[in-house]
User: Fold these one by one.
Assistant:
Number 1:
Amino acid sequence: MSALEIKHLFGLRGVSKHDIRLILDNAKQFREILERPVKKVPSLRGMTVVNLFFENSTRTRTSFELAEKRLSADTVNFTSSNSSVKKGETLVDTLRNIEAMKIDIVVVRHKGTGVPKFLADNSKAIIVNAGDGAHEHPTQALLDMLTIEEKLGTLEGKNVTIVGDIRHSRVARSNLWGMTTMGAHVTLCGPSTLVPRNTELMDKVTWESDVKKAVKDADAIIALRLQKERMDDALLPSMREYRNTFGITHELLECAKDKVLIMHPGPINRGVELDSEIADGEHSVILDQVTNGVAVRMAVLYLLAGGRANA
Amino acid sequence: MRNIILDNVCPFVNGKFGKPTKMYLVDGKWANGAPEGTPVVDAQGALAIPALFGLGLDFKEPLRDDIYTFKDGVAAMTRGGFYGGLYESSANAIDDSLKLAAIQQISAKYGLSIAFLGAFSMGYQCKDLSEMVELADAGVVGFGDGNQDCSRTRFLRLAMEYGSMTGKRFFFMPLDDSLRHHGLVHEGSYADTLGMKGIPRVAETIAVFRILEMARFLKVPVHFKQVSCGETLKLIERAREDGVDVTCDVDIYHLILDDSCLFDLNSLDNVPMPFRSAEDREALWKGLESGVVNAISMNHDPVLAQDKEVNFEDAVPGAVSLETALPAIWKPLSERLGAARAVELLSTAPAQLAGVAPSKLSEGERADLVLLAQDSPKTVEASMFAGQVWNSPLLGKQLPSSIVGTYINGNWTEV
């Protein structure tokens, strides 16, 4: 049972427990490698990975790039600000041009839902989703899962609460699919304008509007970043009211378990979704998430490359 | 003229299909006989259905003839069995009589029964009124919005009030732009699962309610294009009971597809009026049964390949339909509602809405027909479409029936 059933990583909806387990187990091994003095393995030597980022990203792109380099792949960065896309080239043409340069793996981030699948339909390369619209961000969810397993031993039976802008969150969507597949109980909580109204197809999770109730039994709380544009769009009255109602504060944590984990996909709006003292406090595992991000992405790339790698 | 003898064909006469017989199609008429040497086609029991009438034709010419032309559109009509249609182009607002004359001239070359909707505002901008009286005198059969929301309610009132002098019907695609808010798909469980911006049903019902109230107030006849949800049909039914002159159509694809197709993320499913839920789809079918829905519309809207060969959200909305409409819908429609109602919804009722004489089959009379092998499935391929477009949500899918040929305007075309 050492091969993935999936050929690409578009998202975690529909991905089997076997595949998630395999990725997490491999990530744990890569996590150990990252602690060594020499952090590099030859697994993807001879392979070329392009990071095709049509949206701004610092940490995800850096994390992927590090993962690729730790695996000895050749890496090319292709961002919208320096690409021919700005000159009117279509997505397919961009991909075909890149593919003509004999690329093996494409890591893509795009504002459009389903762009990774679209690229896979039009290319022979292995596609890894680094975030598509508000749809999925599977490697973020995998690193969240790895962090929880690392700290709590297992996801099975654990209560994970995600608080914030669920409606626009690809992180929340990937987490709800991945974590429920792995046996965790997921509770989603946010302001009524920032949660989806039609949840029939997301019925394996609990929807809770009262944040105190949502965190009460949580083993881990994931606070989502609140985009400032939500205020411009009249989805919320103010950052202040959001912080007072849904922010992760000391007062709120008094309602939670003593050893609850505090997580955040970053970058943090300190004093909005997460108070500084919590972000830097004893419950926070945010920097562990960052380290695990590299390990998870190494595992994903390594496993998807499968027999195509030289090592 | 290309005459033909159809042998072993079942013609639709007086509301039902007759036994297999021989039809002599000569000089545009169903004749008693044919000149010697007229070719014979063995129809093998295929149905001869009165040719169809397509609501919602947009052939792009003249301003976007880089996409599609009238010639392409006529070829699509001929392949699909349409003798006429109601033309309204979002790319070419017919907002003065010169533009109308120009497009009438293009249309006249082909001899099909195409009627035109004028724009009630200049360039569909809802800022300046078009010369509706002159347009009506020059032959438009009604006034349309170009499938763009007229959010300025006072302008809507004035347009309908002024246009009431013509006695013509106003045609609207009801979708409140503010509630649409960049949405492309139905706001439902599929869109929310995918994290896509949705268009709620209230975007349609609020627009419908506003227009119905205006129609009631001004006593102006109105028509709703591409109704997509059950709630709208309830509003229309209630308004009719109150005496408002209101008609409506449903788009052919809304009877076949619903928002569950979103999981495919196929840019060909990106259409201006989103596919709504399975419950809505069933409500539309019930509307056809009850008679609340007057007609099935085509909304033939060509989009270039490069504007569809992109991810769903970046695709240009629109679908072509003429070539595949009948083989896609005939079996489910006739099985559920009967052949007579199916012909009414696809041919006579849409023609009536456009003020065009209906197509009917009667020996000795003019005959425009489409020959359908109803139990002969066919897979939709790009080559089936006229012009350089193939933007059909049915591409690659199997249709339950297939068109054998059409006899339109005195010409037999084998498909």
Note: The domain at 17-136+291-308 of chain A is CATH 3.40.50.1370 (Rossmann fold).
Number 2:
Amino acid sequence: MTPARVAVAATVNGRARAFEVEAHHTLLESLRDDLGLTGTKECCLVGECGACTVLVDGRSVDSCLMLAVEADGATIETVEGLAGRAGLSAVQAAFLDTGAAQCGFCIPGQLMSAVALLADTPHPSRAEIEEGLAGNLCRCAGYEQIFEAVERAADAVAPARARTAEPRVDVAAIPDAKVAPQ
Amino acid sequence: MRPFAYERPDRIADAVAILAEAGDRARLLAGGTDLIIRLRDGTVRPDVVVDVKRIADLDAGIRESDGRLVIGGRAVMTDIAAHPVVRRVLTGLAEAASVVGSAQIRNRATLAGNIGNASPAADTVPALLVHDATVVVQGVDGQRRIPIDEVFVRSGVTTIRHDELITAIELPLPDDPSGSAHQRRTRRRGHDLASVTVACVIGRDGVTRLSYGSVGPRPLLRSDERGVLADRGRPDDERRAVLDALFTDAAPSASSMRASPEYRLAMLRVLGWRAVETALARRGEAAA
């Protein structure tokens, strides 16, 4: 079958972009190969590692599990969009401060999940951070530094309130819940 | 990924017309969290992929209507897990939706897709069974309302026809305070497929509805009509014997790599007991 090309218009990191994609290409492929945004990483391609995490209309998604055509009309944010003219975002700065990046490959995805989590839950508990970033694997196992960075970023952006004690989804009430002991 | 034609209908009628014409050469795309993996590994090779996300008359919302909660065919796990009525009254379903995949997966995966895929390990299906869901489907011959227990045949096979689209999932909202719970066992915390899933609802009348998955070709629904399980005044031995009897049809596969049959059966009893006790505690809170 001749690959069908489909026109896509999307806002990517604040910029209106119009491009053509093949229907069987993923958003991940399009971001990297059509738009040159290689900050978003390709890794497991089955939605387990989170290296390809981007925000679509404000929600974190694995861009390897979404067709590029599905992004038509959407607002996409990738790691390239985090830093502004004034420099790194608070989340990026916190990742640097805590030494969260070791090899660095998972960090774009970790950052995007952290941004999505903090947008939804400005003062996450440690359990909420673990759950919010559960879809992002780090082979260097730098999880402590990553979680600490998210806590620091939360405090930097909105220091007024203490972090909430309980996860938003009440999994802590379940004996077999997948929330870590504190 | 093998090339395919991409269709993005804006009405249910157009979508089912495409499905009817293409037959098994078409695949529905909702959240894509299962389909795109299978498109990439070649286990499904459709000629046409029908994206349902622009169908105007296919709801992505959750609303109450005539004593029922109606979950739209496009509703995603994140929204189901966060919905206040689901969390308060259909707690087992909220818990199940909240453990599907990761945040990224829950932001895309739909409840309709979890049903349509008919995985024996589907997280939400035991909860839908105990909460007595009805699956509303639309095909070229019109609408059908299928009780959820009549949907599943075996892994990947349902009674939903090829030209039919799941347009909504309806759940009765109980008048009386009931308690429900969902439990599952995974190999590791975080993001994993379930080795055992259990859901349970206990009504004020003492009837326990219990469902379990990942231990056979499809999730099963059983009940204790006599109220023994729900009666904490009875000895635990008697209650546990009733619980064990509900699990006699569990038949986990020996070929699954996630857990051995012996482990699954042992965990089924542990999680079943926890689900019953949690549901009882919640029923007490709801009545208070």
Note: Chain A touches chain B through 47 residues (CB under 8 Å).
Number 3:
Amino acid sequence: MSHNFRNFILPIAIIVLLFSAGCRGCGEDTSPTVIGLHTQITWNGENISIGDTVIDLAGREVRPEKLFIYISDISLRQADGEWVNSKSLARLDFMPTSDFVDGVFPFEVLNESNVFDSIRFSVGVPAELNTDGVPFNYPNDHPLGVVGSADMFWPLMSSYFTMKFEGKVANTPGEEIITPFAMHPATNPLFRTLSFALPDTITLYPSENLSYQFEFDLAKTINGSGGTFNLNEIGHTMGNVENAIIFVDNLKDAWTLIE
Amino acid sequence: MIFPTYKYLSATIVTIMILAVGCDCGKRLTWNTTPYTIDIPAFFPPMDIPADNPMTVEGIKLGRLLFWEKALSLDKTISCGSCHSPDASFSDSDQFSVGVNGTLGNRNASAIINMGWSTSFFWDGRAESLEDQARVPVAHPLEMNVDWGTVVNRLQNDEFGNELCYPQLFFDAFGTDDISENLSVKAIAQFMRTMISADSKFDRWRRGETQLTDLEYMGYQLFLKEGGDPEDTPGGEFGADCFHCHGEAGLQFSDYLFHNNGLDATFENDPGRVDVTGWVLDSGKFKTPTLRNVALSGPFMHDGRFNTLEEVIEHYNSGGVPSTTIDTFMKYTSGGLQLAPQQKDALLAFLHALTDTTFTVNPDFQDPH
């Protein structure tokens, strides 16, 4: 009996091994799931390009000239309320119109048939990456590296800027567009996370890719539920911390999930 | 009748063989390059080397010879080094460089220093790699003004004396003695990537090897602070506001981006970056140059309009000339930076602390011919 068992067990073990190896080798797609966030900039709901002339609340001409944004931690919320974080980090340069960022969820992060009802992302560099920042330690193609962070690192504070929105505004309607403004929120207290309910609950399978279209309304960063300020009074660095807080608090009004 | 013909033929063949041997200098046996690893200085980011142009000792040697080779100009009177002089931190101390036949350029020759970390080249950024950069001056009508085919033919066939044998050098560097434009610019780019400066007084201070004077340190603090009187410029810190464009994150003192720093109200004379991108908002913008060795690399600005650093500081102190695309950092609506005389002196002292003469006299970069 023992002899017969040994005769069977070896071929069975080999067959099981072969089958299991075969499953891993060719049957399973382990590529990551990619959630693309495409963002179009607008001014009071109208699509614009950087460099266009728009009108502010006081009827003054405004010309946005620069828009750089760090987007991080693209996450999806499961039905049980738990967020699955892609730990993504990208720099968006809206020069001149729109830009996109991908949240890449490694295969291991998503279990089969995950159900999600919300998406969120953060504007800025997460605190754990924004302490004593040292761009030269990153590869050049990394968004926090010297090249990747060009114009987005503040050496005096060893901090990355959350975003930069710059341009010029006329002092009175119809006058020359001449007064510069520069909104440069930086440091961890001005980091913001924005959440959006998905239009429909989605069931996401590993290796499946999806994209969402967002609108970023620059006019609402100046006038929103967080408060209002005048572009021709903020000069450089937004004049004071209160304006900077208004600006980042208004981001939740400015960003809209379209589809 | 047959015999004399044979005699002439033999003589001709022998002559051709002698000539051929003369052109085919050197002894190309086996190709075996020596990899060259760049020693990245402290606080510098990694340098990206193109996968199709790895650094080798042989490639760098060839690149240095080509950089200083006057056969790369139409009348064989100028080399790259003619307009990028070591004394001027490999820039031109003249406002505009003189090309072949005495033609004048229309922009000041940029300093060649730590170019391996740059992401675009020329004042308008029209070249995106050092290799592509090296192509341009050779064929440019205001510079060396010769087609690359002529250059390649010269390098392949001409006698250069001093046992200089370009087919052999190309074989040593790239495994082929079939000289081409692409291999030439690859070699020049390899050499230029070795031209690293990291031994200014500021570098030594960062490494803890020396002290900045009080005036130099004051200048460094001004460099890092927001410009303007907070009464006139919200957010102003009475600083010099240099860091926005001349960022020190990778110690290159340039953000590698393009700015209009308020030199002119209109841009007919030189539209700048817009000629490359076609985007009107790029009108009048030029690449931020490094501040390393800035005290050696005057005159300043893309058109070399300022002869001294004092003039440069005065320009920024004035706030510049308003225009459609003037940078929002310029203080053109609020009376300029309003630096006091001592602050200007401090800024000047700091800029001088960025001077690295060990770079300019480095024997590895001098004319080998």
Note: Residues 18-25 of chain A have pLDDT under 50 and may be disordered.
Number 4:
Amino acid sequence: MLRGVYRCVLRWHPARFRKRFGDEMLSIFDQTQGKLALSQLVLDGLASLTLQWTLRRQFRSEAPHAAQPAAAGVPSFVTLDPFRPRSAAMIHGALLSIALFCLTVFAIRYSWIRLLHLSIPQGQFEFQPVTEPYRAFSEPSTKPAQTQFDEQAAIPPQQASGKIHDAPTRKPGVSDTAQIGAAEPATNRNFRTPSDSPSRKSTRHSALQLQVAGDTQTSAATQSQSLDPSERQFVLVAVVRNLKEHYVDRDLAQKMANSLLQQQNQSNEGIEGVAFADLLTTQMRNVSHDPHLVVVYSSGPLPHIQAPTPESIAGYRKALEEENCTFKKVEILQHNIGYLKLDSFPDPSICEPTARDAMARLNHADAVIFDLRDNRGAAPAMTALIASYLFDHPEYWYNPRANTTEELWTRSPVPGNRLADKPVYVLTSARTISGAEQFCYDLKMLKRATLVGEPTHGSAHAGVWYRIDDHFGMGIPEVRSINPYSTADWEGIGVQPDVKVNSAEALQTALALAQKKLRYK
Amino acid sequence: MAANFQECLPLSPATLHILLSLAADDLHGYAIMQEIARHSEGTYRIGPGTLYDNLQKMIKREWVEELGRRPGDEDPRRRYYRLTSAGRGVLEAETARLAEVVREARSRLQKTGMAKPRRA
């Protein structure tokens, strides 16, 4: 190793000196025995290096090149000025360039959000404060009622306000008894997308076969039926109306509406519900290129949302508490690696103490593994709360479901926290969905965690659900969220793991990675 | 010529020892280092950095000339160096200067020893 160091020192000498004496100096080094003597030679080399660059300038200047006489008929060039930039100047220039580049990148990284934020007038959005409880629930029946679209089952009803709507039902009274899961704990959600679907097509949402909880006739829900013209027309009109009324970009909504209406005359005779939903989704996306727009068909009756009662809210709270807020396991594994299995990101207004207690138990771990393989997502505020422990300064916490005007930041640093610089691993699977995907995506973009497992489900749920009739509904983004990472979010594609393994092997893989990292730390 | 050498005096210890090493024979760098250690009885040693820095200066002043490599040497990277007549002149001038210093020092020490006042 010392020889390598010595060669390196020799290489840094002025070229003229190095060419003349470098080989001989290395020859002397090779003949010298003993570590002490060799170390002294390295020090001697460093002293020589300093001397050559500081006090021996006169030896570094090259003799001017003599002009070569040109052969007859051969053009020759003579440089009158023998100046060549010094190597040290070149190194200084390179270092300065790198420093300036880093500074520029840093400035862009930490300033553009605010610049963009200033450029967007807040009044442009139909911003509905979350502090306005039950607004949508209390609207008359001619206005949309509530239906759960997002996997926000663990968000209390008052925070889900304005997120989910029913269009006027075509057949009033049908399925009115269906209870929706907004006021239910996460395990009792009424709507659930197929958790093990391997499909990653962009139009996957429109082909979702919604499953009604408690409906034992699940096989019926997978069947699609031909639509009669009047039903197609009704759905089309409802889709157009919802777009015009609720889509975040009104101009684009008008263009989509025009496109949908223009294409309605095309032959759709005998088209089935799923195919029709797919068609409408494709037509909307062709105009808007917005993957969060979707029309969904369910052969089973889509339930209505009813306003939550104080009893249902109390039941929701109790169920969460009985489930320990879905904090399934908090353990310290071998080699002092912390392990947290979390099956949702529940509402912090109920579960913040539980979350803080869990993170406190991991506080002295040398690395942390978050097991989100069965995590159904939910409250963005909880994802930010837990992420707060992983940073020593506030980080912008991107949420595709909120207006950029509603900035969410981690609450870092957390007093007494020791995890801000510890390695973090997140286990993922195709069942990791919604808010859990936000946790994965943001940590990945911030380069704060290594994702181990399978690509996540691919549902950003950046839309509000509108029930059209018993079989059709649609998701419409009502917010404009600017992605600071200039990449697509995970809608339809999932968050890709850094280390792709079968989800069943993710824990062992992450443990091995953590142990390896800790060993070489 | 001698007057010119006077301008270069006194020599640094490293320069003096290198010139002394080359006075008897043509040597390569490693041999010069060993010869310096030998004739100073281990009290003075120089590293290759100091050696070649001084050789660079001495070659420039034409006190030492480079002979190049010798075929059949155990390490083909070695180059040999020889004292030039100018280098020998500098060495002689420095030796004479040092001899004068030594003579003067001895003379003064002897006088000081005789005139040293006795303590009561």
Note: Chain A has a mean pLDDT of 74.
